[in-house]
Amino acid sequence: MEKAKKNSFMSWLDKRLPVTENLERHLTKHPVPKKVNFFYIFGALLMVIFMVQVITGIWLMMFYTNTEEGAFASIEYIMRDVEYGWLMRYMHSTGASAFFFLMYFHMFRGLLYGSYQKPKELVWLFGCFLLFLLMAEGFLGYVLPWGQMSYWAANVILSLFGAIPFIGPDLQVWIQGDYVLSGATLSRFFALHVVVVPLLMIALVVFHIFALHEVGAGNPEGVDIEKHRDKNGMPLDGAPFHPYKTLSALPAIGIFFVIFFAIVFFAPEGGGYFLEKPNFEEADFLKTPEHIAPVWYYAPFYSILRAITFGIPFLGITSKFLGFIIFAGSIAILFIVPWLDRSNVQSIRYKGIYSKVAMILFAASFLTLGYLGTKPVNELRTLIAQICTLFYFLPLILMPIYTKYEKTLEVPDRL
Amino acid sequence: MIKVKALLIFLFFVALPVWSAAETECGTLEKCDSFESNVHDRNSLQRGLGLYKNYCSSCHTLRYLRWNRLERDLDIPENILVEDLINNPQVKTSDFITFGLPEVSAIGAPDLTLRTRVRGEEWIYTYLRTFYEDSEQITGSNNLVYPGTAMLHVLGGLQGRQVLDQNGNLEKVGDGTMTTEEYDAAIGDLVTFLAYASEPARITREKNGIFVILFFIAFTAVMWLLNREYTKDIK
Amino acid sequence: MSKKIDHNRRRALHITSGIMGAVTVGAFAVPFLSAWNPSEKAKALGAAVKFDLSKLLPGSMAVIEWRRTPIFVVHQTDEAIKNLPKLNDRVTNPALSEGISRTSNQKYTILKGVCTHLSCAPKYHPEIEPKAWDQEWLGGFFCPCHGSKFDLAGRVYKGVPAPTNLEVPPHSFDGDNLIIGEEV
């Protein structure tokens, strides 16, 4: 009786809103590969950390003051006077680092197992937009505490816009809303950080997942699970997303929270990498910190920016502007990876030796650049950064050549 | 598969220096003296508060810390707080610890609330112990960690006189009211108090964090069992 | 698929993990709900207010701000105290069980200066003389917004819009000091 009632309610609802259809399509009948490795958990964890950031962010917003005079003190207000304010703040700041950490692994998975290849180009593209938005979001958020590092790091990044020929200086003033970085900038960054960018991110996450569910999730072997189906139409190497995939995410979420809260409770400053020391001092436009370092998650890109110590004089391009172009290029090139890879296999496991070497070079350069980005410059470090910049780009730029001609292994039929 | 693992191990070793590398420079010194505060030591905190009140508070404020927070966290009885520490009928116990000093005092002494987080605990611990006599300075003393510091060595009476020898090392030439060990311990108390002031929530944070972590370990175990049970269906 | 499903084990796991999930959600909710409690700043601003009664002469009233509310402190004259029982049949709630001043100290009346009708501020009229709103006025509070009348102890008159007596805020006496916002 109970069941019949429920069913009649569902059929009433289904005629007006396609609930069952969508639940089946995206959860209970959506096939995902049975066997994947730990690299495939980062998508789920990213969803979790995104929610953590949104919720803690909303709560922080309730107590934060977005004015030049009040911002810094309002952070201390949150840390001391608001019940559990410190927890919200540390979860949000640690969450930012965790977000990037997971994002980089998630994307590296994509590169390793060819998660961008036809027909998944759009999934990858939306993901790249999400990385770009996340970087913007992190930058905007980092300005809000209005500490010394907030102020001076923002100054460095905003002055990059000033390096664009002709329109640069006016553009910089327009973005700042003032002739210098000031309270006007802070207020608009706040609005962008809490409303505009998160809304765009939510929209893109939806697109990312819809596109993924259209083309189906990949696996480390690069096998197409759709080829072999049982008589119900379920792929033999696949299992429904719910309950199998959702349940397998739960222990991973548990482990993630163990690590996450270990940092939140016992090392929220992350050794000065998550919350930088100078940022505990209020912004002072007369006093530049001795050493301006970006937060670790921007360090690789910041390193690329700094590595460009030369311009192209006969084109009228200064070293600063060239640095900006290469810096922007280092992110832009990720967008076109689907069209750079000409390989007939997806996974690194069946690609040739050139692909493997290229991937190691790329990852090693990225990490080295990250390390260098947090350190003060000297000649040797600049040279290493330049070499690493080269080896960041080369594996991607040469991809069309080596993936087309290298010898690949035969991909098995089944998982 | 083995190759991917080898790749990961390789990446891990490349990543290692990123985490292990921290700036160790400490003014003219190569390295700050090691010090770790224990904000759970009530007595140490109370002694540190006493030192702050007697030696620092005439120039340095704690403008994000409320008096009544000390009552709760440091077990200071209200009558001692009101009569001995605040000692001013105009000041409420819920006020910040500013002693009516201006925001940036005339001599430019910084607010101390967040100082240990800006400089680091070890920096301040070393700084307060490396003053030496220097007639070229207006204040009559100089510092190894922060050369040319504008701060008077107000704790000199406790520490005794120090000068630099030819090799640039500190040499004690006159006794203070404390022995070197007592003085080091006193500075330890003071830094511990300042570390507390920079983040009063640290006491709760470090005390309760372990329960949250243990809970999520249990959570992981249960979810792992649940997932294993369901995975049997699709094996 | 060939293996048998152990339904008992599965159900036990469902229950355990369900409880675990509920505890997680509940535990996550605690800090977020607590954050909405008054902060230390609000507590500091809303803390008890001290007032020195020794300078308040009989028949006069002081207005003190406490939690953004005007608090009326009236030092009653002997005449006013004598007059209060005369009003018993004109007020809604004549019982003096709350005491004339409704405090432990009979000489003082402490009231929230907010009319119980629509939250206007009543005016203090201690003089005993015929008024436009009452020919037999024995002193009290008159609200100019809608004409509510209260006697000097804050008791509401019959037949006026205000339904109840003026509220007494929590307070206590400490020697010559009145402390508003703190009961002993």
Structure described in brief:
The complex is a heterotrimer of chains A (415), B (235) and C (184). Chain A has helices spanning 2-16, 19-28, 42-63, 71-80, 85-112, 121-143, 148-161, 168-176, 183-215, 241-266, 299-307, 319-335, 337-340, 353-373, 379-397, 399-405, and strands at residues 31-33, 238-240.
Describe this protein with a few key phrases.
heterotrimer, A: 415 residues, mainly alpha, Cytochrome Bc1 Complex, Chain C, 2 domains, 16 helices, 2 strands, 64% helix, C: 184 residues, alpha+beta, Rieske Iron-sulfur Protein, 3-stranded antiparallel β-sheet, 9 strands, 22% helix, 21% strand, elongated
What do these coordinates show?
The complex is a heterotrimer of chains A (415), B (235) and C (184). Chain A has a two-stranded antiparallel sheet with strand order 1-2. Chain A contains 16 helices and 2 strands. Chain A is mostly helical and 415 residues long. The two termini of chain A are 43 Å apart. With 235 residues, chain B is mainly alpha-helical. Chain B has 2 domains: 168 residues, Cytochrome Bc1 Complex, Chain D, domain 2 (Orthogonal Bundle), CATH 1.10.760; 31 residues. Chain B contains 9 helices and 6 strands, in the order H-H-E-H-H-E-H-H-E-E-H-E-E-H-H. In chain B, the strands form 3 sheets. Chain B has a two-stranded antiparallel ribbon. Chain B has a two-stranded antiparallel ribbon with strand order 3-4. A two-stranded antiparallel ribbon of chain B has the order 5-6. In chain B, a hairpin with a 7-residue loop joins strand 3 and strand 4. In chain B, helix 2 packs across helix 8. In chain B, 30% of the residues are buried. By secondary structure, chain C is of the alpha+beta class. Chain C folds into 2 domains: 37 residues; 137 residues, Rieske [2Fe-2S] iron-sulphur domain (Rieske Iron-sulfur Protein). Chain C has 3 helices and 9 strands. In chain C, strand 2 and strand 3 form a beta hairpin. The radius of gyration of chain C is 27 Å and the shape is elongated. The relative contact order of chain C is 0.15. The mean pLDDT of chain C is 85. Classes of the chains: A mainly alpha (415), B mainly alpha (235), C alpha+beta (184). At the A-B interface, helix 4, helix 5, helix 10 and helix 14 of A face helix 1, strand 1, helix 5 and helix 9 of B.
